[in-house]
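Technical annex B. To support the medicinal chemistry partners, we prepared a structural model of the target in complex with zinc ion, based solely on the information shown next.
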Amino acid sequence: MSIRTIRVEGDEILNKKSKPIKEMTARNKQLVSDMLETMYDAQGVGLAAVQVGILKRIVVIDVGEGPIILINPEIIETSGEQCGYEGCLSVPGKRGIVTRPNYVKVRAQNENMETYEVDGTELLARAFCHEIAHLEGELYTSRIEGPLEDVEYDDYEDEDFEDEDFEGEE
Ligand code: ZN
């Protein structure tokens, strides 16, 4: 396992569309394991392969309930609405308000390429939307309502993303 370099806004690769995974090769397995290590090291709650410079449709998420590995994920159902701050490991030290569905169901393959479905609300629903958008080359900054703000540590006390994993993004 190794920690990979996280690409930051301004790097053109972040605007490119990622390609589907056809089989779980040893190389892809290594990538998944490196992505998890990189995400935990950066104290993020999600990471898409493109963020470490690889245009493959792989996402890892952990909102504090254990790792979720999504290969070729697709959003198949959404409902409700939530409006709150969002941040991104590729846009360090910033945050902005984004409206997302409050419930999201995803169909994906796991690391054995078996299709499964996983759903979530609130922070997990937000993470599904945010990370899957990365696979289309989209950053949350294109969806913010209002300004892109500098993150100040104290602000976290009151916000949606007061989750301890998110504090580490600064
Ligand atoms: Zn992101």
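Notes passed to the chemistry partners:
The helical segments are 26-42, 122-135, 164-167.
Residues 162-170 have pLDDT under 50 and may be disordered.
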